[in-house]
Design goal:
single chain; alpha/beta; TIM Barrel; 11 helices; 8 strands; about 30% helix; globular
């Protein structure tokens, strides 16, 4: 795989600092039952990295000592980590809202037959990746049969109440572009998703999040292989909107890797750019228990243009 970090280091992206911490995003491992072209984690079935129980306890200790009210669990397929359910249960006992970044097909994985019930019982918000509402596009990006499996999973979640009005069970979908282009406007695309999935499959959901593909890891390597890396960076830079700086996710989120080390965002985690903290080369979550990271500088490079281009992009979708 081609390294993207050397192409991102020289940057004129503006310096920014943190605001109040609101969300702790925890990557519990890179193992996944899929291998998607756009995946900035380069997750897949052969990855073995996995957060252990000791690190999970450190995460919980941080949550208990902080005012953070949202735990965003990601991977890989986070549900494949043997400590996933323990982390969810203990976080909910602390009164923390939990988000599961779910690829949907995991609901049909052997051993996960009761996953939908578990998520329902603990009122976990599901953010489910569905990169298009058309079968041919999803299968082209994620593999043959993925769309059909995703539809079955969405129908199952709907039967449990997810995405249904008044249920209190939130089901949000995530769209990624198919290639080296910016995503379309979020609101009209959400309307298209809602109409198509409802009319064709009887599926309901709450919101659609539109995300920009980041020029790092697997997607960045693909761009380099096709000779499109610089062209895509030009697209991002030419669409830069300074007003998006105020709302980028790194201002209010901390990212934790499977070993417990802390970063400004998931993208910095994948590039190995640690949280700037007291001149340490890297900082473990255990060292931040009770600390206030507000006002701390944020590590930036050229990939940050991906979050500020056009309508902006974050883990919660478009910024503007």
């Amino acid at each position: 795989m081609h390294a993207t970090l050397p192409r991102l280091k020289v940057t004129d992206f503006p310096a920014i600092r943190r605001k109040r911490l609101e969300t702790l995003q925890v990557n519990v491992g890179y193992r996944c039952n899929q291998s998607c072209v756009h995946c900035h984690v380069s997750a897949g079935p052969t990855r073995t990295e996995e957060m252990d129980r000791r690190t999970v306890l450190d995460v919980l200790a941080f949550l208990k000592a902080s005012a953070v009210k949202t735990l965003d669990i990601t991977g890989g397929a986070p549900e494949l980590n043997g400590n996933f359910r323990f982390l969810v249960e203990k976080a909910r006992e602390l009164g923390v809202h939990v988000i599961d970044r779910c690829n949907l097909t995991i609901l049909e994985q052997e051993g996960e037959e009761d996953l939908a019930q578990f998520l329902t019982d603990h009122n976990v918000e599901i953010v489910a990746s569905l990169p298009c509402y058309l079968e041919r596009n999803v299968d082209a990006q994620r593999g043959r049969g993925v769309f059909s499996a995703s539809v079955r999973a969405l129908r199952l979640l709907n039967r449990f109440g997810y995405g249904q009005q008044g249920s209190g069970l939130t089901l949000n979908l995530v769209y990624n572009p198919q290639g080296a282009v910016l995503p379309p406007a979020q609101a009209p695309l959400e309307s298209d998703y809602r109409e198509h999935l409802r009319d064709e499959f009887g599926i309901a959901f709450n919101h659609l999040y539109v995300l920009t593909n980041m020029p790092i890891q697997r997607f960045g390597s693909m761009l380099i292989s096709k000779g499109q890396f610089e062209q895509y960076m030009d697209v991002l830079k030419n669409a830069y909107q300074p007003e998006n700086l105020d709302s980028v996710m790194c201002r209010s989120l901390l990212s934790v890797d499977w070993r417990g080390y802390v970063y400004d965002c998931d993208f910095n985690q994948m590039l190995g750019l640690p949280l700037p903290w007291k001149n340490r080369p890297r900082t473990h979550i255990a060292r931040l228990i009770g600390a206030d990271v507000g006002g701390n500088p944020i590590a930036v490079m050229d990939h940050c243009y991906g979050c500020t281009a056009g309508q902006g992009s974050s883990c919660g979708g478009a910024l503007g």
